[in-house]
Amino acid sequence: MGHQVATDQGLISKPPAAPSVRGRRGAVSAFFAPKRKTRLVLLLSAPMLWLVVAYLGSIGVLLTSALWTTDFFTGNVAHTYSIANLHEVYTQPLYRNVAVRTISVALLVTVIDALIAFPMAFYMSKIASPRMRKLLVVAVLTPLWASYLVKAYAWRSLLAPNGPLSWLTGGHTPGYGLTATVITLSYLWLPYMVIPVYAGFERVPRSLFEASADLGAGAGRTVRSVLIPMVFPAIAAGSIFTFSLTLGDYIAVGIVGGKTQLLANVIYGQLVTANNQPLAAALSTVPLVAIVLYLLAMRRTGALENV
Amino acid sequence: MTTSVSAANALDADNPGEPEPRIRLRGLRKTFGSVVAVDNLDLDIADGEFFAMLGPSGSGKTTVLRMIAGFEIPTAGTVRLGGVDATRQPPFRRDVNTVFQDYALFPHMTVEQNIGYGLRVRRVPKQDRSRRVGEALDMVRLSGFGARKPNELSGGQRQRVALARALVNRPRVLLLDEPLGALDLKLREQMQLELKAIQREVGITFVFVTHDQDEALTLCDRLAVFRDGRIEQLGRGDEVYEAPATRFVAEFVGTSNVISGEAARAILGADATVAIRPEKIRIVSPGEAVSAGDVSVTGNVREIVYAGAKTRVVVDAAGVTLSALLLNVATHAPELQRGDAVTLCWDRGAVRTIEA
Questions:
Q1: CA A281 to CA B42: how far, in whole Å?
Q2: Do B189 and B303 lie in a common domain?
Q3: I need a labelling partner for B190 at 20 to 30 A (CA). Which of A82, A252, B29, B106 fits?
Q4: Domain for residue B211, yes or no?
Q5: What would the pLDDT profile of B214-270 be if each residue is shown by its tens digit?
Q6: Contacts of residue B110 in chain A, CB cutoff 8 Å?
Q7: Binary contact (B117, A225; C-beta < 8 A)
Q8: Closest by alpha carbon to B45, among B243, B207, B231, B214?
Q9: Residue B71 forms contact with A (CB below 8 Å)
């Protein structure tokens, strides 16, 4: 026993090697550990810079420029303040028509995507086998990797007056126009609806559906009273994508829309073709107001509380 | 509703003159791919019985419960409820309600809405509905909690809401899938007593799935011990505990000392496999004579585990390890030390011959 005690003491008297290594490795953490405010500033400065300067700043510039005017003769921007542009945008029947048409298209695309995504996401999450589920997730996500233009042009050739759709249906094709725009935009934004709704269903345990059936509810009742309320926040989240992306789109409209003009086309026209940047800025307040109103409406339903 | 009339009149084919039992399972089988979850199972459960299905996880007990509820369709065999073939009936047509393991309360509804869901679905008039919801809340002692959401309740309260939500529909059978599994020990013991009282009050059939043998023994009138998709033993709680039929039951329901082979020949003078409960084994005090009807064996104390009410003494004797459970009646723990030589003895009648 005496021998063992001696060995123990020998061990203790040796200088400990480990702490010095740990000291060097954790030096940065150790330096910042007591400085809570410094840490917070370092963590938040980059996102705050992005949000305040790049995002809110540019919106501020946009709104300010809506109040400027252009010199009728030279086309140069004159920094004299006037609400003439805004007045024109919100009173001219032409602009009002375009605004109503655009918001209607955005709502229609949102409803179509929700109607397709709901059963699809339910199948993916609750019915499909694990293998099938993976395949479907890949199938939904892969189109996002393809170029937007490729997909829009694909629809252009699909819907062409003598294209495949026309050939298959014996001449029944919507052709280029508002209908084609709605179809193409619904297709383009569908993944943005399917993925949140799928994630929403993933969070709902299967036992809730079983409980509903157990308590006497048939399929329709369970969909109405359990499924839809449970995934409504997810549908709302997806609808913010489909709604706002549609409001801002002008390329797909240009490709399959024929003569159809949506707000973004008009803004683009004012900015690039007519060289009237203040009027374009005034016009762009319309989708901005629309999306703010939409977000407020979603918030009123309580859909954004648990996202 | 003609089915329920004929149900009341249906006679038991196996017992002429008697009505058929509430639940009758015949040749029930369920496979998932190549896995046999339930294998050719026959079982009758009577009206008003508190029945426990006990077994380790994967023994098929929950699958049987889910087939009674209608969540799984049997691969073969029949489920009869109250004399009616319900094998392929969807859950919402069965006069059966379930308390789920995770409670499955609807998070977007209040407690009242959760409990009233089944009544609303069945179009019970509003006045009637709120009265029955109120009664159900009283029964589980949650009056005043009706306006809360499930996430504002504790685990025990959620459990009681789940119970009320099922019972408010006045089903003929209540199925409970490990309903107390998520609760801590004290609360679980309290809920066991409440469940027992509620079952006595409503008088309907309770079928209870659990892997906790204490819980099964505490609650049930009869129990079935499940193993690998089959019923290993079926009977009253005390029957199964006192007279386990197999080694599996002897070791799963309570603990048992199993003696077989060489040790059995040495101790009992017989070539058999037997089980003896630790609490039936006594330690012979020095100078005490072993009575004629008793079996005795001498060995050495390997371990003494003091556990408050009881002390477990582990003894190596005749090539086996025997565990004796002594009630600490005296204020001092038995004065034993590891390595002491002791004589153990038990009544010959306490030994059960089991299938190996």
A1: 77
A2: no
A3: B106
A4: yes
A5: 899 989 999 999 999 999 999 999 999 999 999 999 999 988 999 988 888 888 888
A6: none
A7: yes
A8: B207
A9: yes
